[in-house]
Each structure stands twice: as structure tokens, then as C-alpha cells.
Amino acid sequence: LEIRPRLITKTLIPENQESPIHFINGQKISPLQYFYRRNHFPYPSLLPKPYYLTIRGLVQQPFDFNLEQLKSMPSKSFVVPLECAGNQRAKFSPKVFGEQWKDGAISQAEWKGVPLKDILLKAGLQKDAKEVVFVGADYGMRTDMVGVFYYARSLPLEKALHPDTIIAYECNGQPIPFKHGFPLRLIVPGWYAMTSVKWLQQIIVIDEPFTGPFQAIDYVYYPYKNSDADKKPVTTINVNSLIQFPLDYSVHNTGTIVIEGIAWTGNGVITKVEISIDNGETWNDANLDSQPDQPYAWTQWSFVWEAYEKGEYIILAKATDSNGQTQPFEPMWNRKGYGYNAIQEIRVKIE
Amino acid sequence: LEIRPRLITKTLIPENQESPIHFINGQKISPLQYFYRRNHFPYPSLLPKPYYLTIRGLVQQPFDFNLEQLKSMPSKSFVVPLECAGNQRAKFSPKVFGEQWKDGAISQAEWKGVPLKDILLKAGLQKDAKEVVFVGADYGMRTDMVGVFYYARSLPLEKALHPDTIIAYECNGQPIPFKHGFPLRLIVPGWYAMTSVKWLQQIIVIDEPFTGPFQAIDYVYYPYKNSDADKKPVTTINVNSLIQFPLDYSVHNTGTIVIEGIAWTGNGVITKVEISIDNGETWNDANLDSQPDQPYAWTQWSFVWEAYEKGEYIILAKATDSNGQTQPFEPMWNRKGYGYNAIQEIRVKIE
Questions:
Q1: What pLDDT does residue B35 have?
Q2: Helix or strand or coil: residue B55?
Q3: Given CB 3.0 to 4.6 Å as the disulfide criterion, which of A49, A212, B17, B132 pairs with B160?
Q4: Mean of the per-residue pLDDT values for chain A?
Q5: Could you give the CA distance from residue A237 to residue A15 in angstroms, rounded to a whole number?
């Protein structure tokens, strides 16, 4: 009798489904059928055969790479959590418009590919190169502008040349699943996943800031509801943690409860996860199950709670990273709802 | 490329999954794979073969009905929405403990079976009979009491003898799916679905109020957080409605938007659904797609909105039934979170 969790549907066209992350705890790699799906457009229906990755713009030598060429180059692999910049958007108060992601717009896989740096250097950068634009094969319309747009994002040269930014062709030792970007996906460890362009078809080197709508309108922190003042681009993943078990507003018998979850950051590694079972009055260190050989991977954590006293409890989890960043009590509200990383609060009843 | 909605996992043991009701709009019958699943215990693993429905207690003649006997009796069919009493529990404020159902703990099917009345009369009721207890094959432990309990509920004699209360053996023209109560399920049209006992094995006629925990502790409205004063049993489904489209906090282009959803009640039929696109200042009647031959079925409704003016809108839906009951602006808060039926409010942005 099959009993299994399911992806959590947010919208069907385009397909946006959340990972049932509370029901797949204790995993270093997210089962692919539970990997969250986030699309801006319908799936691209026609991928060119043979598939070329073209590199154009301010390069010494425009290049077309086919898949065999890419696979013959030196490769790197990383276990990387991909997190949608809008993960946990539904928790902002005041609430914001957009896909109402709760906790599951994050999943983790092992990605293998060619360092982007090697590809850029093979083509050769012209001296006024400033940004690198990545164009996917997916396209469609927007509600706020007239026209048809490809999904495209840019990286500043420094991040494009980072040795761990890769053009991936494998996910968990297999070709990338179509819904996750087959055959090529840019993977930018440490940045929110809008940057990790799926169905990557074209790389264009430019000498000025890229102004495509997914760069200049979306994925920008706007601190004010009615003004664009003080806006800044969404880039690095904020330090964050999630309580996977127990569930919010769940009821339990007295006894030992193993509180568990994950913590992650885009900047360094997780050094500490603290748990409070008394709404922040006292804190205890959780046990961390780090992966020292996988500097980008999320850290699984657990805390054994002897829940022998009946009552209602407010449980908090707070992660700190090696750059000294700690989750705040209040999220940084922004109009489009990106980068939520406030300390998570759940309530449980012991009876 | 398969893109489909999914059940929404609440808990796996027991299996509690919500229907993705916002993504299966426009349907008179809920696709069975999207029928919500609500269990108190693990699925019963061993159903007796052959399967007998026993009737005991204050009857003239104890009876064991096998399936063939039941199927040879006169039958009735109804399209019935089954709604968990805790549907929309997550919307109560202050929030309450328990399964955090949102909108999808309701689904509709056609159920066919033998009127319970005919079975009771065949066995013959003794004159002091007051309630009829229904015992399912599912059992297990509770967090609040010591011991192992079968899932069991009772009906007052009047409701048990209502001609539309049936012992169902078919769902949508097929044997009942195991997860929904195969081979026999009590179906009580108009009452919340905790009463429609699955895997029905035993009927017991008694002369006093049934005190099983699913009758006397759960499925009781407790108006106060810290007192049991003024409690009353959960029975009839409250008049209610749901906006299935558009989604809460969704963003749309200017143009025509067909707002649509369902409305239902346990007492009479839906006579009116009113829609407001200005947070309740003005109301308009929705078009109703009633099923006059199906007095219990939900009513599909729609309202054409010419959304040509950009801005943020608060859309409300309010249903009224033939007993003059209308959805309230505020839900009747109760400690265990049953019977939520406040007017639904969604926000959309037109840009």
C-alpha cells in the first residue's frame, strides 16, 4: 500500500512544485522525484540536435561547444543545494505577491561539469568584458511587459571566473533530468538558483550591466513597497536553517523527540545550529553532520529533546556560518519576497 | 512531459494528504488520485475474508451481512462531497494544533449503497435504541490516552434512519478504493466526513450516548481554549465556498479573468454565491452550475471579471444556502479547529 510524499503544486503552467522537504529528512541528496521545480515559462519543447553551447560577444574567438567536447574537458563535481530566491516567500509579513513558496523551494544534488572559467578562457575574453550572460532555451511572456523573452541571467566576471562555477552535464551521476535543465545547466554554488540557468544554450560576454527583465526587474531586493530606492541584486544565499521534524502545530506524546533539519549558507560553511525549545529564552547546540569534503552541501543537524513535560512549546532553530552571519529574528522584508532567512519558529503540543 | 498536480502531504503515518483542489477546478467528480486522504491510524492490514458486516446490540435479531447480500438489496446513489471537519483548520486565528489542513480536505464522488435504515429494520430495533455505533477496521494509539482504539463513531437514531444515509459499496461505479474504505463505507450526506466510517465492520445499537474518544473528545466544538464549557458535537457541514481560481497572491495580466470555485452546505442546497472584487464594498452574484438531481453535490460557480484596471484587489466569495445560512466574515473559533467556513479572501495583483 503505497504511502509517499508528493511534490506540492504551486502552479502548473509554468510548472512550479515544491519539495515535500519535511517528509524527506535525513537525506544528503534529495530524491529526484522530490526535487523542487521552478520555471518561469513552459518547458522548452524543441532542443536543437545536435546541441551546441555557443559563446559569443566580447571574446577573442566565438566558439560552439558540442556535448562531447564539453565532456572531454576536465570536470568538477559538487554537492550543491539549489535554493529558489523566493523560498519561504509565503512567510513574509506583510505578505508579498508571487509564487507562495513555503519551505520546499530547496533541494540538493551532486552536479558535475566543466568549470565555466575553462570555457571562457578557451574562447578568450576581450579586455573590456564585464559580465557574462547565460541564455536558456525557455521563453515566453510576462505579465508586466509586452513581448516574448528568453530566460536569461548574467554573472559579474569575478563570479563567472570562480573555479567552482560550472557548466553541468550530470546530476547525481546521470544526465541532467530534462525538467532540471538537460543537457546543460549552469551551476553557481552559493548563489540563489535563479542564476543556475537551465537548458543553457548561449553564453554572451558583454561590457555593461545586463538589463534583461530577470536581471533588472526580478531578482532584485526592493526594500520599499512603493519605491525602487535602495534596490540591490539578489546574489548569495543567506545563512538559513529548517526544522524538518517535528511539524508545525503537531501534537506528540511525551517522550524523546529528535528534532532534526538542515542548515545552509552561500558564504562559507555552517559552524553552529542552535535550538531553543522555550521560544528563545535558552539555546542549545544541535549536533552537526557536516560534509567537510563538500563545502557547499547543506549540513544536517539534530537535537535530542526529552519532552516529558506536557504543554505547548515554541521551538526555534538558528544557524551561524563561518563568516559570522547568523539568522535574524526578523526577515529583511522586500517587495518581491526574496532571501527569507528569519529564524524558524514551530509550535508543538506534548500531551 | 507530464505536468500534473499532486496530493499535498500533511503526514505520512497515518496518511493524511490534501486534494490539490485549486488545480482540479471545473469537475463534478474529484479524480480519485486527487481525492483527499484522512486517516486516524495506519491502514488496516488484514480485512477478514469473507467480509461480514455485523449488526449487534439492541436489535431484535443480530445479523451478519455478507457483501453479496448487501448488493442484492435495493440501493441508492448520491454525488456527495466528503469534507473533513478540520478542513481549512490552518486558517483559524489564533491558530490551533492538529493537522494543518488548508483548502483541500474536501472531495466529491458518487457513492452507491444500501440505505442503513433497511439494514437496521431488517435486524429490528429494540425500543430503547438511541444511537448506532459504527466501527471501522482501523485501530491504533492516541497521544492523549493510554490504550489501543478502533476508529468508531455514532449517529443518533434519527440520522441513522434517514433514507439517504447509506452503507456504500461502490464509489464512482467501482468498488470503493481501499484507501477510501473498501469494501464498505458508511456515507452520511450532509455531515462532516468523520462520520462516514471507512472499512466498516460492525454496527452496534446502544441506548446511551456513545463515549468513544472520536465521539466524546475529538469532533467536538470547544469554544474556549482552557475550558470545555459550551461544547457541542460536530455534525452538519457548514455552508461554505472556495475560490479555486485565481490563486491567492497571484499576479495576472490585464484582461478577462474567470473567477471560479465551488460552494456546498450540509443543510439544503446552495441558493446564492456572491463575489466581491473590492474587499466587500460591492457584491455580485456568481453564475451557479447546480445539479438539481443531486441535492448534496457541491455547486460549481463562476464570475467573469473584466480586470482591466491595474492594481491590487481583495476578492471575496460568500455562499448562502436554502436554509438562509450565509458564510460569516469571522469563523467560529474553536479549540480543535473544526467547521471553518468564514468568507474566503484572496488577493491578486493585476499588472
A1: 98
A2: strand
A3: B132
A4: 97
A5: 23
Write the secondary structure of A66-88 as one string of H (helix), E (strand) and C (coil).
EHHHHHHCCCEEEEEEEECCCCC
Among A129, A107, A108, A128, smallest CA distance to A117 is for A129
- Residues with Cβ < 8 Å from A27, sequence gap 6 or more? A108
Kindly list the residues from chain A whose CB atom is less than 8 angstroms away from the CB atom of residue B95: 249, 347
CA-based nearest distance B174→chain A, Å: 19
Instruction: For residue A96, give the amino acid letter.
Output: V
Report the pLDDT value the prediction gives residue B47, as an integer from 0 to 100.
80
Residue A49 has pLDDT above 90, yes or no: no
Task: Place A292 in a pLDDT band, splitting at 50, 70 and 90.
Answer: confident
Helix (H) or strand (E) holding A304: strand A299-307
Copy the grid coordinates of residue B86: 478540520
CA A241 to each of CA A271, A340, A351: distance values in angstroms, whole numbers, following the listed order? 12, 11, 27
The pLDDT assigned to B114 comes to: 98
Amino acid identity of residue B81, one-letter, is P
Residue A217: pLDDT band with limits 50, 70, 90: very high
pLDDT in tens, A322-338: 999 999 999 999 999 99
Q: Using the structure block, give the residue that is written with the C-alpha cell 536543437.
A: A48
Q: Which residue of A has its CA nearest to B9?
A: A5
Is the pLDDT confidence value at A312 over 90? yes
In sequence order, the β-bridge partners of residue B206 are: B131
Which DSSP string corresponds to A127-175?
A: TT--EEEEEEEEEEE-SSSSSEEEEEEEEEHHHHT-TT-EEEEEETTEE
Extract the C-alpha cell encoding B195: 462520520
Among chain B, residues having any CB pair with chain A shorter than 8 Å are 1, 3-9, 11-13, 15, 17, 20, 22-23, 43, 90, 95-98, 100, 143-144, 178-179, 247-253, 312, 347, 349, 351
The C-alpha atoms of residue B114 and residue A145 are separated, in whole angstroms, by 59
A271 alpha carbon, distance to own chain's centre: 20
| 3-state SS record for A191-260 | ECHHHCCCCCCEEEEECCCCCCHHHHCCCEECCCCCCCCCCEECCECCCEEEEEECCCCEEECCEEEEEE
Residues in chain B, total: 351
**DSSP letter (8 states) at residue B43:** P
ipTM of the complex in this document: 0.94
- What span, in angstroms and rounded, lies between the C-alpha atoms of B196 and B164? 13
Using CB atoms, pick whichever of A6, A347, A349 lies closest to residue B6.
A6
Residue A326 is classified by DSSP as B
